[in-house]
Amino acid sequence: MIENACRTHSRTSTATRRLARMTSPADIERKVRQLDNDVHSIYEFLTTISETQGRHGNRLDEIDQKIEGVDQKVTGLEQRFDGLEQRFDGLEHRFDGLEQKVAGHDRRFDGVDQRFDGVDRKLDQIIGLLDVGNKAVD
After folding, report:
1. Which DSSP symbol is given to 22?
2. How far apart are CA 27 and CA 33, in angstroms?
3. Are 85 and 93 in contact (CB under 8 A)?
4. Is the dihedral of CA 121, 126, 132, 138 positive or negative?
5. Where are the alpha helices (DSSP H) in the chain?
């Protein structure tokens, strides 16, 4: 604790000695000019930062507009895909109907095929009877 007090006293006395050396009007005027230059430099730096922020803001606005354009295009594509999906759903429904019709035609053809098999058997029997009758007449 004594060491800290000594250091604080040492710093205070150093600052007091500097202040005592700067008491001349020329030193004070030089220090004021230096501080004024520092203030002007800080304002120039802040102006540069402000201009940069303005440019960044403009660029962000441009990017925002481009993103809005892309968003509109994506929305348009989504609507088109929704329309295509509805059309494909309609086509799928129509193909389901055609599939049912073809299945119905298959069943009908199976029935016709069975009928032809029956007619074919009857014709074979008739031909067989005619052959027997022709042999008997000979």
Report:
1. T
2. 10
3. no
4. negative
5. 2-21, 25-137
CB atoms within 10 A of CB 121: 10
The tokens describing 41, both together, are: 């430099």
DSSP character at residue 138: -
Q: Which residue has the tokens 């088109």?
A: 80
pLDDT per position as a tens digit, 13-60: 665 555 555 578 899 999 999 999 999 999 999 999 999 999 999 999
For residue range 57-94, what is the model confidence (pLDDT) as tens digits?
A: 999 999 999 999 999 999 999 999 999 999 999 999 99
Instruction: Report d(CA 44, CA 37) in Å as an integer.
Output: 10
Q: What is the CA radius of gyration of the chain?
A: 53
Cα(59)–Cα(53) distance, rounded to whole angstroms? 10
CA distances (Å), origin 1, targets 8, 12, 55, 88: 11, 17, 54, 87
The backbone torsions φ and ψ at residue 24, rounded to the nearest 5 degrees and listed phi first, read -75, 150
Supply angle C-alpha 50, 32, 13, rounded to 5. Answer: 115
| Number of other residues whose CB lies within 10 A of the CB of residue 27 | 13
